[in-house]
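Students often ask why we bother encoding 3D structure as a string. The short answer is that it lets us treat folding as translation between two languages. Here is a chain of 321 residues written in the first language.
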Amino acid sequence: MNDIVALIVKAGDNNYIRESREHRAVMDELARRDASLLSPEERGHVHFYLTRSILDEAQKTGAYRLENRKDGNGNPYSFPVVDEENFPEELSYLRKLSEQLRYSSALDGWLTRKRHEFVDEFRRDPALMTGKERWPTMTSSERKAFLTDVIRRRLDSFSDRDFSFAMPEIEITAGNADGLSGRAHTDKNKIEFDKSIFEIDDPAIPLKLAYHEGTHNILTQMAMAADEGKIASAHPLCDDIQKRQLSTRHKMYDENQIQSLYKANDEERVCYQEQEYFLGNLSNGYGLRHKFDLVRYVAQQYFVEDKTIGLKALIHGLRCV
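And here it is in the second language, the structure alphabet:
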């Protein structure tokens, strides 16, 4: 059996040209290989190579289509995404690889418990609750300071004897090329926010974004701690952290431009769900009366956001105690 990594290195040396014999050799070998039987290192090399091949070919041939989106203030804009019909083989295998990087229920449970504790602290803190109410009248600098404080307070709340989370560097950018309003670095303790997020008067949107990128950042810090030998192999979250380490080492990130992969990415699934659960918990608490309020809240969100995520948030909220 051919060494898939050697084939990938050879194809990469040939500039990832999709029409080349080297690329065809990679695809023929993958057709013979069960994705679930690849070693973690092989999966990393394959994911990086196929993603790079798609993006390079799309850029070279103009294989894009425009997707209509809305920014945080509801203003429409068009964003170029890869026309995926041009890459059926590559995408089919990448979807199989994504199944190998799904996080466990242990991580979902840990995030849920930590979120509930943080929401309780948030709701008891007059400064945080007042800041949330004052957001529409705040200046941009005040909004940045408040959002930064929310991130800091969450990391303090999540820290315990197993994990110690440090405040990331917060950088404000202008006009992110990937069409996203925020980005958490995967190999360093840093979060970026587009300056447009501080022009939005509804506090729900920046709070959800901060919680989303903060969840990415927490996973990054866990992986960094594991790299330093600070996570015991017997820890219940060790397998999940190792998956994150593999993703970081091989840059196994599904680009926003390849929409089907981005939506299927399990880390994005976790982060989107956490942002919805957080806002629902923060707005409605856990009592029976608040659960009925949650139904009303999610029903409203259902028509303006991702319907699947909204329904998951509703079910989760109704199960909370």
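Translate back mentally: The longest strand covers residues 64-70. Keep this in mind for the problem set.
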